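Here we describe the complex-level prediction in full. Unlike the single-chain runs in Section 2.1, the two entities below were treated as one system.
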Amino acid sequence: MTATTEINKIINEDNLVYKKTNLLLDNEMHYCPGCTHGVIHKVIAEVIDEMDIQNETIGVSPVGCSVLAYNYIDIDWQEAAHGRAPALATATSRLMPEKYVFTYQGDGDLASIGCAEIIHACNRGENIVVFFVNNAIYGMTGGQMAPTTLEGQVTATTPYGRNTALNGHTMKITEMIALLPGTRYVTRQSAETPAAVRKLKKAVRKAFENTTEKKGLSFIEIVGTCSSGWKLTPTQSNEWMKENMFPFYQLGTLKDE
Amino acid sequence: MAKFKGAIVVETEKCKGCSLCVVACPTGVIELARDVNAKGYHYAYMANPDACIGCSSCGLVCPDTVITVYRTKAS
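The structure predicted for the assembly as a whole is:
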């Protein structure tokens, strides 16, 4: 038997073990090659599909690269003003308490422009899920410094590296949020290896399940890459992230009540 | 010999050639093609199909979800 016929025998519906979930639309993603957003979208879509809550889920998309998230996941979406996704999600979940409401925000949107909104939404203990994608840079606008940019990291606006005396210190927003009594589940995950993706999926599922119990906000930070902003290839970006971001943004669950 | 035989199907026109699957594959099955798709990306393909065990690692890490994975018991 030749190799090709053997492969053709393996490729049939009975042997299928992994395919794109139906919740992910066929639109080609606009993200750069290797962008972590794609993996996170996929994980969220898979969890919504597995929990069979497609009709009960409302997402709030941010301003940033993931502004077009509503083109990719087949659920109801709203588009918030820059940084104001938690405010919109608050209104949505209060008006429709039976729905699963989540926001999907980047570090520019959540940690900088929407810092006040997220902190107060967390403090109020809104019954929503927040996905915070942290790649330590403003990706969409061309790689400028974000509050989460690491000390010494070169960006478009810190060409000699972030200088804490001039640009301030790197902000660990997730640690700040874990201190607030309104949050119930606060965790930091990544999505660079198959094992990390599986862990992230468990965390996403837990966060959505928490929504039904109405005991506070679930917050998931995902440490991701921005190969265009960092000026590295996707695989180099993952290595850079492991070397530089993981020691500072330590993965793990900070709070689980 | 591996207990399972696998195979992947890559939607080549949607693949952006980020090579995250190449790194994620534990058995070194996937490589980027010399050819390019309509967008000019070197798409991923099964360069070493005999080694595939159908573990789905490539599918999990693919940001564009262009990989479908099949798996069967080795005969």
